[in-house]
Amino acid sequence: MTRVTDVDVDLYGVPNEESLDDATQSFDELELIVVEVETDDGRGMGFTHTIGEGGSAVREFVETTLAPVLVGGPAAPRIARDRLRAATTYVGREGVSELAVSAVDIALWDALGRRLDAPLYELVGGDRSEVPAYQTHGGWLQYDADRLVENAHAAAERGFAGMKMKVGRGHAEDAERVRRVREALPDEMDLMVDANCAYTVPEARRFARHLGDVPLDWLEEPLDKGDFAGHADLRDRIDVPVALGENLFNETQFKQAMAAGAADVLQPDVTRVGGVTAWIGVADAARVWGLPVSPHYVEPIHVHLATAFDNVPYVEHHSTVLDGVTETPLEPDDGAFTPPDEPGHGTRFTGLDAYRKDG
Predict the structure, then answer these.
(1) What residues have CB less than 8 Å from 237, skipping those under 6 apart?
(2) Among 12, 62, 150, 334, which has the minimal tally of Cβ within 10 Å of its Cβ?
(3) Which domain holds residue 223?
(4) Residues 290 and 144 both lie in one domain
(5) Out of 164, 166, 304, 345, which one is annotated catalytic?
């Protein structure tokens, strides 16, 4: 059995081209926590991210808690995950610990792919040659309505299946901005809105009333993170589908969300939910519950995973920060991504030394 011989972790702060705003936060830096796992016969790379803070805690957790558990143990991702989960029992399986586990798990799958000379999509049983995408980067809250309309036209011209925009300027203004974007998009394109956990149930209901008959494909994270009962209550009171999941950190939380009837669409993030192993578990469970999965961000990994699941209608094309430090960024062709054929997940970073954070 192949075993882990060494684990290395680095932290980088990659600046955005401009500050990005949503209803609850503004950020101008993507922190990348990059984990390199050495095995008897190769290596693999995994990563996770924050939006400008907390990365040093994730790095330290990998170094002081996860690495000692991994080194000398099996490099098989599922077996290693059991050991990693045991190491997080007393500190909680969310937040910092699960970001760290995610990066390590992704690295182990990457090492497996490189060892077998197989791309990640083959390892997980995928057979879709391309995956549609919706576009998010054109919908940030700081853009005025004219800019949003321009971005909507651009997304349509590039063939994206949909566009997502932020809300948080007040119900009336938000509704007008949404209305203008909907009118700018072709009928066949989906439109989603993201509240970033800014509403209460009554506020979300008022927003839905302001929208009137404007068709939306989902309202994303309208309420507090983890408020499954509130989301279920809201679903009973509005006609707009509810999406959530980027802020859920493990399979158990997704199971609780599904059992509570909290969502119409689930959005696991492979770099936050526990890695490839956990992401697959969520997508499998969602398929049993008859729910679609639309993963959050990180399309270079998600495009592989989506090929194995018929309940993943599209992946998210987010900000371009990752593209700026990736050797060969994924480029959408007529709004769809093709998973790379390189062994492992195929994402390789470049130029990160300029952004290294010491500590």
Answers:
(1) 201, 205
(2) 334
(3) 122-337
(4) yes
(5) 166
Q: What are the distances in angstroms from CA 271 to CA 1, 106, 165, 291, 297? A: 26, 8, 22, 21, 9
Q: Which stretch of 54-58, 80-84, 160-164, 285-289 has the lowest confidence by average pLDDT?
A: 80-84
Asked if 44 and 175 sit in the same domain, the reply is: no
Is residue 166 annotated as a catalytic residue, yes or no? Answer: yes
Question: Do residues 78 and 190 both lie within one domain?
Answer: no
pLDDT tens digits along 199-223: 999 999 999 999 988 999 999 999 9
Look up 357 and say whether it is catalytic.
no
314-332 per-position pLDDT tens digit: 999 986 789 999 999 999 9
CA–CA gap between residue 280 and residue 99 (Å, rounded): 16
In Å, what is the CA distance from 323 to each residue of 17, 100, 135, 309, 331?
12, 22, 15, 25, 9
State the pLDDT at residue 19.
Answer: 77
Query: Which CATH number do you get for residue 263?
Result: 3.20.20.120
The one catalytic residue among 49, 164, 231, 296: 296
